[in-house]
Amino acid sequence: MPAGRGDRGSGRAASASPLGTLLKGWRERRSLSQLDLAGAASISQRHLSFLESGRTAPSREMVLRLAATLDIPLRQQNALLLAAGYAPAWHERELSAPELAMVSGALEHILAQQEPYPAFVVDRRWNLVRANEGARRLTRFLAPPAATVPPPAPSPVNLAEQLLSPDGLRPFIVNWEEVALHFLRGVQADALADGTRETEELFKRLLSLPGLPPLSRVRLGGELQTPVLTIHVRRGDTSLRLFTTIATLGTPLDVTLQEIRIECFFPADDSTVRVFRDWASEPPPRASALSGAR
Question: Is the pTM of this model over 0.85?
């Protein structure tokens, strides 16, 4: 079949184009051979080879077809299009944009329905976007007094760093090593899946924190006592046992929406249920570290 638009011919050596380099990187990240990807995308292996080597410039439709076949996130699909000389296909709007009002309202509904238990909306790299009152109550319970003083220049609260840092929640999590290992592996999987420098840098920052358990550590299935990992939190005489669920939007066509996650915490025992219900019946004692979260 023809090599396609922009074929530079086989009579002279071609250097890999920016698109070709990115495309090959994603193919290798997904552990696919050229033959595997070509078959899945319904193109010839020769054509794919020409695209990766820079001998052929793809159409916009071809870039999107290969990106979809490789299950590349929308943000990185835009990067592929730009590398090929095309405008981005996917918008990245603020969550407060009028076009996202229905989704924003749905997120608020989920947060409200989770009361009195905690719920957070975070972005792809665990930066806090929104939180409900249950989350603020939990933060007021755990945060040391200094953490409730707003910084001079507010910056996003990163829940990953808060969870793993010795200055964050680590001192209050009884089974911290177990929770940290599970969470670290999740961030590592995120970095492998989305291929962004930002997620990789977050993973490296987390690994640089002192006292982390090695990622090679395993826990035998026979040692597990519950069907889900329970986070055991204790401060003073108050003990909480929680497990979490993480939800995403099912059909996002916007970069921001694809990267949104909603993490909901649920009580794992009756005493934790009582604590959260008691907290909900009391006025907030002081400002929360999450008071800036919408």
Answer: no
